[in-house]
Structure formats: C-alpha cells, structure tokens
Write a structure and sequence with these properties.
- The model has no long low-confidence stretch (mean pLDDT about 95).
- It contains 11 helices and 12 strands.
- With about 375 residues, the chain is an alpha+beta fold.
- The protein folds into 3 domains: about 120 residues, Acyl-CoA dehydrogenase/oxidase, N-terminal domain (Butyryl-Coa Dehydrogenase, subunit A, domain 1, Orthogonal Bundle); about 100 residues, Beta Barrel (Butyryl-CoA Dehydrogenase, subunit A, domain 2); about 140 residues, Butyryl-CoA Dehydrogenase, subunit A, domain 3 (Up-down Bundle), CATH 1.20.140.
- The protein has a 4-stranded mixed sheet, with helices on one face.
- A hairpin with a 2-residue loop joins strand 6 and strand 7.
- Helix content is about 50%, strand content about 15%.
- The longest helix is centred in the middle third of the chain and has 35 residues.
C-alpha cells in the first residue's frame, strides 16, 4: 500500500477526475510560473503582477462563483486550488483569495445586476484587481467599531476614514469598502483614481513579502450613489465574505504544511550526521510522524467542511475551528522543518523559513487564532466572551 506522507489518512483519495485535473493544473502553473522566482521576489518584496492575469486565464479567480465569467466550481475544487497556490507561497494564495472570496464574492452577493455585469467578468479574467477594506488601524478584531463613515449627499456618498493591512490595495482597480452610515454598516465600491482616495503601499514587511499590502485613505471621497452595494446590511455582510475566505485558508495552509513536510523528509534522508542519515534518528522520525499526523487531521477537517459547505449545512464557528486548527498545524510544521534543517533552515535556498514567516500573518489575519477559539467557545457555551 502506497501511503502519501502528506495525505496519510487518504482524505483526498476520493476526489473525482475533474478535481484531480484542476489540482494538477494549478500545481503545474505554480511550479513553472511562480516558484522559479519566489525567493528573489520574496527578498525584494515584489509580487509578480502578471500571474493575476495568468490565474484569470486558468479560471482560478472567483472560481466557486456562478455566472458573470466565473467558473462555478464546487467547494472541494476551490479548496484544492487554494492549497496548491499556498504550496507555492501564502502571498500568492492571499492575492487570489482576496480577489475571489472577498472582493468578487461581495459584489456577487450584495451588488446590483449592473455592478455584477461590469466588474465580475473583468475580475474573473484578471483584468481588474479588487481589494477588501474592512480592517482599520484601531479596529481589527472588532470591525463593528469601525470609524470610516459614509454620508449621503444628494446623488453621491462621501467617505472619510482609513483602512489598513489591505492585500492588493496599491494595485486594485476597485476597493470593496465597508463604512458606517446613518443606517448602519454598508458596503461601497470605490474605483481607483477617485478624487480623495489613495492606496499607498505598506513597506518593511517581514511576512508575506511576495504580495502587495497597503492602506486605504478616504478624504471627502465622493462616489456615485450607484456604487453602494445595495444588498449589504450591517456587520453580517462583511463577515459573510470573511467566512468564504476563511474556508479557503483551511485548505490553503495545508499546502504550505505539506511543502514543509516534503522538505523535511527529503533533507533528513540526504543529510548525513555521525555517518548515517539524519532521518535514521529517533528524534527526527518522531518529529516527522507528528507533522504527518497533524496534516492528515487537517485534511480530514478541510474535506468535511467542504462537504458541509456544499450541503449548505455549515456554521461559521465550524469554519473558525478549521481555520484556527489548520493554521496552527501549518505554522508548527514550518517551525519543526526549520528546526530539522538546523542552520540551513534560515536560508532562502530552502522553503520552510519563508513559509514560517508567511504563516505568522495567516495566523493573525481574517480572525486571529484567539478570536477563532472564542467563536467556537461562544458556540459551545452560548456565552460571548468578546465583551
């Protein structure tokens, strides 16, 4: 029996032929188009923007949405795509995830027919880049307290405020922005070069260096009334978007974890210490076995969540459990691999340190590790511990 180290319990054995083809296609794309330059791009803090259109050409953007140029794939296929992208780099998966599960999903779910027809085909093709403005300098885990405000003035809305840690912001053609109004929190579409709107890049990141992160500033930014996401209503609307993205992360981080385990096994079998392979030592085998076990459990969680999501039986707290658990697994695997590689583990010639630094951000964004535990805790007890 052939047991894969990265799928020890065969969680992905039953994917169908079309899903296998999708996974193979994305892995080939990442291997040939992205990986050859990833370390140079990471070191230089550069994201190769051309891959956005290449992902669009492959149908990867907004792939689990239906119509408007989107592929309409199933949840497992979407998850496998995220896993293969993050096997390359968390920054690559983040760009695709923000485009698909946050910006495009928001327009698809809350937008008017005119907005969907105009924006979604362009975004699916990678011709338009989107970003998602929710987090503010003082409001991350408590987004409902946001200060960005939109005031209705005649046929326009006027936005004032700021957002930060926004993936894709400096290159985005359209920003999905959440703001307080006199009627509660609503979503707005702010197009680039709108007067009063700027999106500067955030520099000196030590994580997710091969992706583009920025801030959004609104200074009496006037947008037309038709740029309101008319079906958006309250904080539940952006949280619905976050649940879509968090689901992708559950799968995505397994790609980084698998890549680390493969590197740890390969290195430990080739590295000779005391006249025998490092892999022959009990301590090393114990570490590898724990990594394989945790990745296997993460795969089972991911596939079960995909099943629940497909059947429309999924609860937000279940996605939180998966996101918290699998990000922790991936981060632990990256750290363990770096440990096994010793001094070589910090070198850019290897992958584990880059994965480890990236996963420190994934551990925090779209709900911190602790917040997701509290979401599960609230569901278990019926008592919210947030306030």
């Amino acid at each position: 029996m052939n047991i894969l180290a990265t799928d020890y319990l065969c969680a992905f054995d039953n994917i169908d032929e079309s899903q296998k083809l999708i996974q193979q296609t994305v892995r080939k794309f990442v291997t040939e188009k992205f990986k050859p330059n990833i370390m140079e791009n990471y070191e230089r803090a550069v994201f190769p923007q051309e891959v956005i259109k290449e992902m669009g050409a492959l149908g990867l953007l907004g792939c689990n949405l239906a119509g408007y140029g989107c592929a309409g794939l199933d949840e497992v296929s979407y998850g496998l795509i995220m896993k293969e992208l993050e096997r390359g780099d968390s920054g690559l998966r983040s760009v695709a995830s923000v485009q698909s599960s946050l910006a495009m999903y928001a327009i698809h779910t809350f937008g008017s027919e005119e907005q969907k027809k105009y924006f979604l085909p362009k975004m699916a093709a990678g011709d338009f880049v989107g970003c998602f403005g929710l987090t503010e300098p003082d409001f991350g885990s408590n987004p409902a307290g946001m200060k960005t405000f939109a005031k209705k003035e005649g046929k326009n809305w006027v936005l004032n405020g700021s957002k930060t840690w926004i993936t894709n912001a400096p290159i985005a053609d359209v920003a999905v922005v959440w703001a307080q109004t006199n009627e509660g929190i609503r979503g707005f579409l702010v197009e680039k070069e709108t007067p009063g709107f700027t999106a500067p890049k955030i520099h000196y990141k030590l994580s997710l260096r091969a992706s583009i992160t920025g801030s959004l500033f609104f200074d009496n930014c006037k947008i037309p009334a038709e740029n309101l996401l008319e079906k958006s209503e309250g904080i539940k609307s952006p949280l619905m978007c976050l649940n879509q993205a968090r689901f992708g992360i559950v799968f995505g981080v397994l790609g980084a974890a698998e890549d680390c385990l493969e590197e740890a096994i390969s290195y430990s079998k080739e590295r000779i210490m005391f006249d025998k392979p490092l892999a022959s030592f009990q301590l090393i085998q114990r570490k590898l076995a724990i990594m394989a076990t945790e990745i296997a459990k993460g795969g089972l969680i991911a596939m079960q969540l995909a099943k629940l999501k497909h059947e429309k039986k999924i609860h937000a707290s279940q996605i939180s459990m998966g996101k918290q658990n699998n990000v922790q697994i991936a981060l632990d695997c990256a750290r363990t691999t770096r440990d096994i590689l010793g001094a070589n583990g910090i070198s850019g010639e290897y992958r584990c340190m880059r994965h480890m630094c990236n996963l420190e951000s994934v551990y925090t964004y779209e709900g911190t590790n602790d917040i997701h535990l509290l979401i599960v805790g609230q569901q278990l007890t019926g008592i919210p511990a947030f306030s």
